[in-house]
Amino acid sequence: MTSSAKSDKKSTALRYGLYFLIPLLTMLAIFIIQQMFPFGKHTLLTYDLNEQYVDFYAFYRDTLLHHPSQFFYSFTNGLGGETVGLWAYYLLSPFNLILLLTPGKWLPVGIMIMTLVKFSFAGYAICYFLDHVFPSKRTRMFLPMVAVVYPLMGWTLANQFNVMWLDVLILMPFVLYGIEKLIDTDQLLYFAIFVGLTLLINFYMGYMVCVFACLYFIWAAVRKWNGWRSFGKRAGKFAFGGILGAASVGFLLFPAYYDIVHSKGQYMMQSLPVKIEYAPWKMLSKFVMGALNDNQVQNGLPNLFIGSAIVIGFILYFLAKKIPWREKLAAGLVTLFLAASLCWSPLDLFWHLFQYPVFYPYRFSFVVGIWMVILAVRGIVQIGKPNWMQLTVAAFLPLSCLMIMALNLQKFNFLNTAKVIGTTVFFCLIMIALSIALLTPLKTKKQLTVKLIAVLAVTILSIIEMGANAQLTMKVFQWTSEKDYAAFTSSLDKNVAWIQKHAAKNEFYRIGKTYQRTENDSLQAGYNGISNFSSTQRANVTHLMRELGQPTFTGKVNYTKGTPLTDALFDLQYFLSPVNQYNNLTGNNVTPASSYRPDISYYTPVHKRGDVATYSNPLAMGLGFAANRKVLQPLSTSPTDTTANQDAVLNAITGKNQQFFNKVGYSIEAVNCHLEGGANGILVTDDKQQPSSYTVIIKNTNNLPYYLQMDSNILWNANITVNGNSLPGVGNIYQPALVNVAANIANTTVKIQINPTNGKDVALNNFYVYQLNLDKLQKSVYKVKENQMNLLHLGKLKLTGTVNVPSSQDILMTTIPYSKGWHVKVDGEKVKSQKALGAFLAVPMSPGKHLVKFSFWPPLLNLGIIVSLFAWTMIYLIFKKEY
């Protein structure tokens, strides 16, 4: 290698090192300013990163380090469920390996490091792409600027807590580079491989990349136009390469498809709404710095901030005379398609696989960012020495938009005068610096110096601009403290460890709690739980839980309104609860209250550690038991009577018709309010400027548990106290909830006070007080337990047990969520499983004692493996041909 070649190689390495470091150091500075642990008290845990992903990452560590079979299935995933979809949706980024180095309380630090590294590689990837697609000295001059504006664009900052999405910023430039190579050389392998990698690492974002790749291919093919015949040939190779790439990861996509179809896919739009979602001009507001607040995160406009230099370059692209009109026309059509996607519902839904996002709208808007970056760099390169008219247009259009924003601030609650002025100042400074850089020729050394200073100014100003936007964005988020996270996880881990140590061998059990950090605590601590929050939560299980009065939402079950009946049904053999639940309701970072359950006082206390007691539930019915054939029939449920639904479930199992919950009377005290329409009418505040209260009084209680049935209108529009103690928030209730207000306290008076919020009218729909007949419940449950399945082997994917089936109950019902992935053998013979209660795995049996074996294998995995093997064979043959 010559000295010149060595020098070039060293120079290239330094340049790419710079592209990597600029976004890393910029975001590291922001994290330090935001006092992220270990530089302060905060963590990056906010929104779904706090409520879901951090627990998934704990599950990731447990799977890779201890239980690899959890890649397929885990009983820590809610009541139990396939996990291939979970991995495909959340956990296959190679950067997740960083988390293996950060256990326990250090997990949030690992997430921060991983996030920084992703920002860095995104800067590296886009610069690699542009350096190879538009190679020139001018391109290289502006790549340090691109290295910061691309990874720190508005979409990234607004979605940084959706960490698994960030990989798309790294992979997408390589997919697009594969298209360039395909067009230039007719070689499709590079493109196919990166399509496969993108779908493997995150199939959801990968789908969006594939859609954008089609648009990019059209533009790139027009840019390098060589006639219709050539276009047709290239299009064929492009389509084949995309299909080949997707097929190469069929081993993941096929079982993930099955998993998603039976979970998130159940909420797919049944009809296609056609509407303009908002006034299109309003999307211009998102090019202003700091254009974000909590409402925007949840259900706002697309996040489009991309920096002033890119906006200027984007306009110059369409003004550059060296760029052919055909190419500009193609670029204009792609831009119009993307703009329409940002505001027209059919295209918006198309990008999101025909499901409106739950929070984080316009998730595909990152493609607008890379599109603008590509056109901007090409525009800056091809504009040459711009004339004053071109520069005037490039300045006038953005400044006019900023003026419109300034005049309409009242329409955007996420903007203020300071943000608009700040954006304007940065735009003007960058416009001046960029103009000098473009106008200055390279005839003398002095001119070269001026040009380099101007380019450096553009880069530095862009770093400051993007950093300022990042800082404004980060201020929107509420961060979980490192102390709270560490205290909770440490305490829960130790209490769960005690149960796991003392539980009998081959004993299956689930653990319930009256406190929680998130619905995914079971994934974090590695125990069999019941609550769950993920896009792969089984829809039929969610539906049943809703009918039993539990708070649910799309992809979410929060078991906070259980009763001894549902505890028994779901085999909640152990319960963790603060020693004094009343005292815990005021707030505690170690045991944050999620429910009030005095009825667990009927269970047996078996352990105490600190302020947390462990209870053993003698009513837990086990994972499987003999049940009546009624469990196979559609369950007759009521949308207004949760107690009737719970009765119906147990009666279906026993084959009897018993009522376990009975209504009881109560007296009331009304202060500054009255009822209109009877006991279940509207509670109206008389003087809305004064506080009001409606108190339900239950006198002369016995030792039985009491429940107040309430629907969401009460829970959302009033504050509720029991004997002066506020109850924890209940979440999303679609079915009336049963709130446990008393248990095990004979001869006392219970006062339940409803305080309307700000004088709001409160509808007391389905408002009743119930008493649970504990003796009747115990007799029924113990009768079921007589024919409980006795487990001989308890594995992660295989279960073996014996069960004695009486003639009147010839169904082995389990509380394993139904899936075609479960295969059952009874006495060595394969049998077809069925659904019990519309949600659980059940097996018809003849009377007598039987040996039952359950084994799990993900549906469609074998087909996916076959498709992948075929695709890999094709890739090998193509590799031999092309290389």
Automatic annotation (TrEMBL):
Signal peptide: none
Highest rank taxon of the organism: Bacteria
Keyword Transmembrane helix: yes
Record keywords: Membrane, Transmembrane, Transmembrane helix
Pfam family, one: YfhO
Classification via InterPro entries: Uncharacterised_YfhO
Transmembrane segments: 16-37, 109-129, 141-158, 189-218, 238-258, 301-320, 329-347, 359-381, 388-408, 420-440, 452-472, 856-879
Protein name: YfhO family protein
